Amino acid sequence: MNELLIWILGAALAAVFVWLLWLGRRRQQRVREASAHREAQRLALEQAEHVARAQRLAAEMAAPAEAGEREAQQQAEQQAAQAAQREAEEAQVRRQAERRAQEEAERQAREELEAREAARRAEEAEAARAAAEASARAEAERRAREQAEREAAEEAARQAAAAEAARIAAEIEARERAEWEAARAAELDRLAAEAAARAEAERLARERAEQEAAAQRAAAEAAAARGEAERLARERAAQQAAAAAATRELRADETLVLVADDSKIVRVKLSRLLATKSYRVALAESGEQALALMAAERPHVLITDVEMPGIDGFELTRQVRAAAATAALPVLMITSSDDKQEAAAAAGVTQLLGKPFSEGALLAAIERARLAVRVAA
């Protein structure tokens, strides 16, 4: 943009320079025309003086006697002829001066026309070059945006794949742990059953003679089995407690709330309200900006308006639900219309809030989303 402005200013300065050059040449032409006019006037005055001088000489020559009248008449005729010759020469000089002035004016007009044509061609070339550079910059910016969008999409896909792999691994580990605990419990039951059967067999073999000793041994074995069962139960409880202690609830200052609304007033109001509860807040003025922020860091709650330029709240919610990484993200939608329930439910909105919305309902929905998240201790 700055380079384009510089080129425009340069073209404007070049046009001003050409105009000033033309104006200077026009002024020079006018000066030359005025000088030629003054020269013609001077020649006319000189001619008039020559005629007056000839007439004066003729009058002086008419005063002598008749004897010299013929000679004076001849001299007057000679002087008149000389004056006529000088007048013809001066007229020729004037015509030559006028012709040279006209030729000079035509030459200057041609030079002025050529200068204007050269300036016009230079301006057209400069405009074409500026347009080509602007087109090249626009193409480069478009390619850069496309590359950034592809990289963001790839990064989002990688994050989604990693999250899905972690979820599958956790499910497999939990299933294997449950199967192991079930097998361990079955083994303990089998051992207890075998111990009871062994005690019963020993009691039947020794009959009455060893009845008391067998009973004591059976009691001891039963007590040992109970102790082993209790020990195993304590181990299972300890394992479950350790698993529960490995995670904790998400703190309020760790909870990221993304607000997508094209109204600056609403964004400022919500950010101040959420800041009073120590929530982290990210602000987006369009659906496209909200998707870009979610690609960089996944929020825990999304608050969106219905009507926004470009991607509106419904389309934003559908794209959030379509992505595996954000499919379960709580979405709170704010609208001033009462007929948006069906469209919001179809898009996958978690809760619809009216305008003016209840701050208590909004904070309660965010708290429910926060308490549902478990993080590593």
From TrEMBL:
Annotated region described as Disordered, given as residue ranges: 61-158
Record field: compositional bias (Basic and acidic residues): 86-127, 136-157
One Gene Ontology biological process: phosphorelay signal transduction system
UniProtKB keywords: Membrane, Phosphoprotein, Transmembrane, Transmembrane helix
Residue numbers carrying 4-aspartylphosphate: 305
Residue ranges constituting the Response regulatory domain according to the UniProt record: 256-370
Superkingdom: Bacteria
Name recorded for this polypeptide: Colicin import membrane protein
Organism listed in the record: Roseateles saccharophilus
